[in-house]
Amino acid sequence: MATHKMRMAPTRPYEIVYIIDSALEDAAIAEKLEKHHGLLELAEPAEIEHWGRRQLAYKIGRHEAGYYAIAQVQAAPGTLPEFERALKLDDTIVRYMVSLVEHVLGAPLLSEEELAARAAADDDDDEDDE
Amino acid sequence: MRRPKKPCPITEAGIRFVDYKDDRLLARFITDYGKILPSRLSGVDARHQRQLSRAVKKARFLALLPYVKGQQG
């Protein structure tokens, strides 16, 4: 019955931001992410964007810098508690945030029609640009 | 006398939903102390101000933005 439930579980898009101890080697970081993502039972591998090492805006414990990685996954909500528990127990993960992707963030790439419409509209109000 | 309304800078930038990871954009809407700038000063429209407020809070948690700026430690 459990397997039946698992197979049927609908997935939702999540974005996971990790701040990892910057002292870790890149290879170790990639391996660690892979291991944690295993808990999510993903059908497709996670899309990971590596920002790399970056200064933190404030100190978190003894850390002044962290390695940022952002993963996009399609996961079943039921797998999250176990996954988050593992992240909390992992000392090398300074901080993480899982958020549901409800909207496309930022400025999406416009289709050609939209670009044309925008160019036409911009012709009139270009003058009051700062 | 009413001041003419400023255009919303976020709408003008073509942003549909404010991204909490875009710290360079968010930094334009916080004060020197790191507080969220009121929309009456920035001209951001209400919908984007709500998104902005949440985005700034998420960015603070992720240490992309400071909770308080200009303070040691």
Put the structure in a nutshell.
Chain A is of the alpha+beta class and 130 residues long. Chain A contains four helices and four strands; from the N terminus they run αβαββαβα. In chain A, a hairpin with a 2-residue loop joins strand 2 and strand 3 (63-75).
Describe it for me?
The complex is a heterodimer of chains A (130) and B (73). By secondary structure, chain A is an alpha+beta fold. Chain A has four helices and four strands. Chain A has a four-stranded antiparallel beta sheet with strand order 2-3-1-4, covered by helices on one side. In chain A, a hairpin with a 2-residue loop joins strand 2 and strand 3. Chain A is globular. With 73 residues, chain B is mainly alpha-helical. Chain B is built from four helices and no strands. Chain B is globular. The mean pLDDT of chain B is 90. Chains A and B meet through strand 2 and strand 4 of A and helix 4 of B.
